[in-house]
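Notebook p. 47: complex prediction with fe (ii) ion.
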Amino acid sequence: MSGIKEKFLIFYETKLLAHFSEEEKILVHLLPDNPHIIRMCEEHVRMNELYSSIKTDDSKLGDDLFLFGELLEAHIRFEERELFPLIEQHLTE
Ligand SMILES: [Fe+2]
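Predicted complex, structure tokens below:
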């Protein structure tokens, strides 16, 4: 399990964290009070909390990694199917 944990931590710290930050930096100011944007930010926070748990607490590592995968998959679906189309409606060419 520790190899999986190491790979997860590297992925999160070198790719995903910057991706979350970039989405927030670019998208929040476009529709700051929109429930979809708020949901996006809340899900980023939830995944960051889970990342902290994975990093510091091995007692439920398997469950945490599984849950993180489920949250990330649902988050990507939400962004691609609901959030990004909504934002496209509000942007000019
Ligand atoms: Fe996101």
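Notes: Helices lie at 2-27, 35-56, 61-90. The CA atoms of residues 75 and 81 lie 10 Å apart.
Next step: compare against the earlier run before touching the bench.
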